[in-house]
């Protein structure tokens, strides 16, 4: 098997934990498909006595999903024993969670620069936390107030999630998690914008046809992303919605994937 980096990843968001091993190439001259084929030919779940849910090729490597921490440790030990020092074990870096604070008074932004904003002082005074635990990502005007996106450490995120609000000065502002997925307006996929799209075809976000949304004449909706997933993976997801619908199964899957990259604890 090729030289690789082995990462152990564990995610738990109030439900049963899902544990992954990620086999990441150190030598890019070998394809991840070769790694997958080599892995499956060398090992079997029965022989290893582990419960492997699935293997999946990602842009970062071969991801192996197991049911428990014990299974992933058994698999990891087997791989390390067989391959010796060809594997390095390390922890992945996760992003801090982001939150949206709504209805922030405009006068909190009198001073220029995110480090001098009165907003931060008010925030810290109300919660009793360190200013270094909060980072302003962006803010935008909504009527006569502003909405502010912040990045916080897990302890502050959990505190705010349980409260649901924060006092900015004398104003009580609602706060919630901010999960943002960039969606391409050309191919309708997530993770990139229109200017970076590599697709040759324009895909309608309403009917999945090869035309712009503004030119669509279809009466019925057919989500292009759910349709793609059904065609490729033989699933039976509902397609009777547009690509921007937040009840979309494909969108929910991408949100779950995003949460896996966030440090909640």
From TrEMBL:
Ranges that cross the membrane: none
InterPro entries referenced in this protein's UniProt entry, alphabetically: Znf_CCHC
Keyword set includes Zinc: yes
Taxonomy, superkingdom: Eukaryota
Domain CCHC-type, residue spans: 183-199
GO function term, MF aspect, one: nucleic acid binding
Keyword line: Metal-binding, Zinc, Zinc-finger
Keyword Metal-binding (UniProt): yes
Name of the protein this chain belongs to: CCHC-type domain-containing protein
